[in-house]
Design goal:
There is one protein chain. By secondary structure, the chain is of the alpha/beta class. The chain has one domain: Alpha/Beta hydrolase fold, catalytic domain (Rossmann fold), CATH 3.40.50.1820. It is 40% helix and 16% strand. The protein is built from 12 helices and 8 strands. It has an 8-stranded mixed beta sheet with strand order 1-2-4-3-5-6-7-8, with helices on both faces. Helix 2 packs across helix 3 and helix 6 crosses helix 7. InterPro entries: AB_hydrolase_1, AB_hydrolase_fold, Carboxylesterase_BioH, Epox_hydrolase-like.
């Protein structure tokens, strides 16, 4: 699994961001945005498929994956929305096609509605977008992050492994699970894991969810129908708030649709991105 590398760096306002580009330059740009507690690694199959026809950009948010993790770091939705806007400017992308998963959905929506980041089209995959969100476990950890941060490393590792694994309906390959868990281990990774949960405040989606009716770009909402993290019923609810949005249910997929049904998700995205050409 070591072949997924992010060789480029960008000094964002919230810490160093690692990123990469795939596919031919000059083709329509597509930016893939990951969620929490994941990284761009979850997009690897989709990114490589899209890169046959598009110029694909992937990145790890500050505090995640290969990007910088630091004590006191602001990794909130507010910070990530600003960083995404900075990164689009750094790449020189005017109106890219954007595909965002989970927490990345809120990041891309905030960047567009609050910071003026313009997109040609937006695909949201099981996004964090409507209140209430966060499982009981997620809320418990957020309220007691300083306690969980002190867990013995072996217990912490088991907790993160169980938590990340539950995002898949079919179950993750052990090597994939290892790769997703690895950034959250060790002296730097363990506090970073609890830091990002502690800062996951619903007020950052409350600020924008009443503005989804302002979206004037093509929007596709994909939802794994076996998602146990965010109920699939949120899909139709979100689509109803966005003019002209379309819902694409994906059977047999949990919250990590990219892992559970990469072919089905890629097919839906290719059709949508083709329409937005």
């Amino acid at each position: 699994m070591s072949e997924w590398q992010l060789p480029e760096t960008f000094p964002s306002s919230a810490g160093e961001v690692r990123w990469a580009e795939l596919g031919p330059r000059g083709q329509d740009p597509v930016v893939l945005v990951h969620g929490t507690p994941f990284s761009s690694y979850v997009w690897r199959a989709v990114a490589r498929s899209l890169a046959r026809r598009h110029h694909v950009f992937v990145w790890d948010m500050p505090g995640y994956g290969a990007s910088e993790q630091a004590a006191g770091q602001d990794v909130s939705l507010a910070a990530q929305g600003r960083v995404f806007t900075e990164l689009l400017a750094h790449w020189g992308l005017d109106r890219p096609l954007v595909v965002a998963h989970d927490f990345g959905g809120a990041v891309s929506l905030r960047a567009h509605l609050l910071h003026g980041a313009d997109y040609r089209a937006l695909a949201l995959v099981d996004p964090v977008a409507l209140a209430p969100w966060g499982s009981p476990f997620f809320r418990l950890v957020g309220q007691h992050a300083e306690v969980f941060e002190q867990l013995p490393p072996a217990l912490h590792g088991a907790l993160v492994r169980e938590y990340v694994g539950s995002a898949s309906s079919a179950g993750l390959h052990p090597a994939v699970l290892d790769r997703l868990v690895a950034p959250w281990l060790g002296e730097t990774g363990q506090p970073a894991f609890y830091r990002q949960i502690a800062q996951a405040d619903q007020r950052f989606t409350d600020e924008v969810q009443d503005r989804y009716g302002e979206l004037a770009i093509p929007v596709l909402v994909c939802w794994g129908q076996d998602d146990t993290w965010i109920p699939p019923a949120k899909g139709p609810e979100l689509v109803a708030r966005i003019p002209g949005a379309r819902l694409e249910p994906i059977a047999g997929a949990g919250h990590l649709v990219q892992e559970d049904a990469p072919a089905e998700l890629t097919a839906a995205l290719l059709a949508f991105l083709g329409e937005a050409h």
